[in-house]
Amino acid sequence: MAPLIETKYVFTITARIGEVTSAGEIGTGVRRIIPITGGEVKGENINGKVCAFGADFQVIRPNELIELEARYAFETDDGAVVYVENKGIRFGPVELLQKLKRGEPVDPNLI
Amino acid sequence: MAPLIETKYVFTITARIGEVTSAGEIGTGVRRIIPITGGEVKGENINGKVCAFGADFQVIRPNELIELEARYAFETDDGAVVYVENKGIRFGPVELLQKLKRGEPVDPNLI
Amino acid sequence: MAPLIETKYVFTITARIGEVTSAGEIGTGVRRIIPITGGEVKGENINGKVCAFGADFQVIRPNELIELEARYAFETDDGAVVYVENKGIRFGPVELLQKLKRGEPVDPNLI
Amino acid sequence: MAPLIETKYVFTITARIGEVTSAGEIGTGVRRIIPITGGEVKGENINGKVCAFGADFQVIRPNELIELEARYAFETDDGAVVYVENKGIRFGPVELLQKLKRGEPVDPNLI
Question: What is the pTM of this model?
Fold first, then answer.
């Protein structure tokens, strides 16, 4: 009735980001774009580089929840290109979400 | 019954693009990303620069039609940031779509 | 520079709707569903019936603008099924949008 | 590094469906609509009825994978309306996916 979902560690993506740009209120929140400028992929059987394009296209809702839509790609050492599209909603304590909005560091375990 | 839709010229966006990346067949076609690296916006009452991030995230369908989803931004001379999201399907004669796919120039009036 | 877009009348869809259901505030506005229960398609060269399923899935934003996403189908007299997906944002004077929200009639020429 | 995701049983939705409608090939596969006509929600602390509208809007890809987008609602015994939007891709052995496409029963444990 309540199955466990097993997960398997495959790799870690460390993305570098550029300057954050805001395009203001769009009716459902504040549009914010976080460019991705590069980075690394490291795992047991897969290693590579994050491509120097793509971004996380966000909307910060009036209640501080953040709609994420990251679109980027990485290239493995053996030449395969993997396109990544991550959609989701970041939620957590409002004061931590507001810290994120101001660009202040937040303990990832708390959010 | 069949109204004319009047249009009004406002500005021209000239975007510079980076190297095109393909992530291969994704089940509904070929994923292709065309990074946007800058450019200019020129009009009578609006002038500015295209921001150095964003991309056109495309899928080339088996029948050569191209699904476009461009996401980028520009900043006007007086400091406003405008986020642009253009979705659509590019269609036209198959031989011209195949030229586009190979990166060859195509007369914009024909497609 | 500013082309006219010519339109061509093809057919009129008259959809019957069922009782409107609201699922309350969802963070970006109020979710509202308007079921489609049937209707008619009439034109010079195409006639048919709207299928008895589908709906207009709406979000009424805090500023009263309405995000529409209608998904339904109709079947022509000669047996072709056409699926329709209409996305858009309904805007107009706030007092008329509020009438629409309350289910009151609004002159379609004003909105 | 590889966390378990714990799940918690809350309720079971049993939806009744109407006649399946196909709108043919749309360029990325075959559009198929499965209307939802009612049903039941049963759980320990939540019980209700599935509303008599909504549908699963599917695309059957050329490789038989099925893109699902179910949109429907249910109303609990105490009067709350819950809107459900389920997006996903159904995959499994091709012969079982083809059975599903023909409307034949398939053991849910195998797919």
Answer: 0.87
